Amino acid sequence: MESADGMNAAHQYPLNSLYGDYIRAAIGVGFCSVPLSFVNDSPVLLTILAGVLLLFLGFGAKTAMRHLTVIQTEEEGIIANGPFGRRIAWRDINKVALKFYSTRRDTKEGWMQLTIFGATGKLTIESSLDGFNDVANSVIQAGFRNNAQMDETTMENVAALGIVVDMADGA
Question: What is the pTM (predicted TM-score) of this model?
Fold first, then answer.
């Protein structure tokens, strides 16, 4: 399925990486919807609970969209097949952002988020994706070939992933 250079590869978010998000969404929906049926007399409480319920429903929908999305790297570019799919040609990448979000104060645990900007819009990928480092490497290499905008934080995170830019590859 994958060539030696990482092209023509398909990557998905493993279900075990999404379980926690599905459970959090279900618990949130449950905790909001049960009391919602009892607060008909309080429009303020009804509005607050309904708003929080919508947030948890949206979070569950976003998790389901990640679950259904397949990220493909091909000769021509990167493709997100699934709900709200997107295709960005390697030559059209004009900005790349690689951010780290810590879950602890000591910044030893967390996740990364890669956002790719191109002529057709943007595509965001989280590090729980199978093969995230390979995808990030392909995107960063294309970004450098295109002289894409990358801020200092992105460059620090590229180094943290151990990505070495191949300047001889078309640059």
Answer: 0.77
